[in-house]
Amino acid sequence: MRMREIAVEHEVPPDPRDLDLEARIGRLALWPLGSEDGRTVTLGDAVAARGDEVGAICRRILRTDGGTAELANILRGVSLDGEACPDPEGIALAILSSVRNGRSGYERPANRLALALILIPGAIAGLGLAGGVSPYLLLLVGAGWIAGWRLLRRV
């Protein structure tokens, strides 16, 4: 008897770098770098000024492991109001992290309520420790910290 070969198809999970790739490319291209002569300069403007295709460069930055270095090289060439980029590697890393997490560069800091729930009990604890430790004080501080961190994780 001959054994039949059964082809088993394995479902390959999609590459996480491809999830919402077009939306991330748009966010990266529209990322504000600053302003010059009253006009907002975006990353797409900087790429176009180099003579490159914006979509292809943004896709390559997001899809390759060397994307941070390539973005840093682009930022090194950008000069706004005669000023060079102060820390291209650090800014490139921050931009890519924000773009991959769904931010566009125009948002305010994430969640002020969560930060307040973390910082205010800390201040109360500092004041309370000067007068002695109370179990209610520890309960208040702990509850504020737990609620604050849970809210921050949702953002």
If you had to describe this structure to a student in words, what would you say it looks like?
- With 155 residues, the chain is mainly alpha-helical.
- It folds into two domains: 16-100, no CATH class; 112-154.
- The protein has helices at residues 21-29, 43-49, 54-63, 67-76, 88-100, 112-131, 135-154; strands spanning 32-36, 39-42, 79-80, 83-84.
- A two-stranded antiparallel sheet has the order 1-2. Strands 3-4 form a two-stranded antiparallel sheet.
- Helix 1 crosses helix 3 (54-63) and helix 6 packs antiparallel against helix 7 (135-154).
- The radius of gyration is 24 Å and the shape is flat.
- The protein starts with 20 loop residues before the first helix and ends with a helix.
Count of DSSP H/I helices: 7
The count of DSSP E runs of length 2 or more, i.e. the number of strands, is 4
Helix and strand content put the structural class at mainly alpha
Secondary-structure element order, as H and E?
HEEHHHEEHHH
Mean pLDDT: 77
Helix fraction by DSSP (H/I, runs of at least 4): 55-70%
Apparent shape: flat
Low-confidence residue ranges: none
Keywords: Membrane, Transmembrane, Transmembrane helix
Transmembrane segments: 113-130, 136-152
